[in-house]
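Moderator note: this is an archived Q&A kept for reference. The question asked for a predicted structure of one protein chain; the sequence and the answer are reproduced below.
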Amino acid sequence: MRTVTAVTRTYRILRAGLLAACVAALAACSSDDDDRPAYVERPVEQIYAQAANELDQGEYRKAAQSFDEVERQHPYSTWATEAQLMAAYSYYQANQYEDAIATAQRFIDLHPGNPNVAYAYYLVGLCHYERISDVGRDQEMTRKSLEAFQEVVRRFPDSAYAPDARLKIDLARDHLAGKEMEIGRYYLTRGLYIAAINRFRTVIERYQTTTHVPEALHRLVEAYLSLGIEREAQTAAAVLGYNYPGSDWYEDSYALLTGRNLQPVEDKGSWISRAFRSVF
């Protein structure tokens, strides 16, 4: 599920600029290295170069710690700001998602006007997205990733990260709709029709652009027919046929209705009709 293109691109940009400065700074101070007395604190350039090397070698945990050390020892240097973001990236690569989120969020809080702040928002979303579980389990990470990527698109609609954020928003919404469908089917098979209808209604009203909508409409036909609410069943089938005329779900719904001498007929006053008019 991991996406590295945008993340890696930003890492390379940051690293290229900072390492160039690092090499220049080390060269400038190398002449008097032998005369410098030993002390615990190390030059910022040296720590940053070590961190970047560790990152290149795939030693992500060590790299994160070294980037953190840049900020700890030299909090007011120009290196500290970028090291903070690089630490977040390193934690992400090490699958230490909570540390990555905390570091990225601190970067956002301290440097809201930084040119790379969009990347920090995006990285927070990725850390949640990487931990999305299947629809049979809790969807907290799906909801958090959705919120984080929506924030990226809202704040930085023209950034390099917005296209991928929009894609992941769609995937997260589809995942959440899938969870509602799973619960709805469970209720439906056990004859808990009102509870099932409420779940399918959530899909129709909140996740109407997802792939689960045709099935949700069909399940509404099933549930309403089981309750004897024929008008709503006919409306669900009519809306399904109008919006998804070639789907297998419509064929199944049509067969259910005609088996009871009913036809798909839309009731314009139904909540189903109102929900679709608000989107299409």
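Archived answer notes: Residues 20-40 have pLDDT under 50 and may be disordered.
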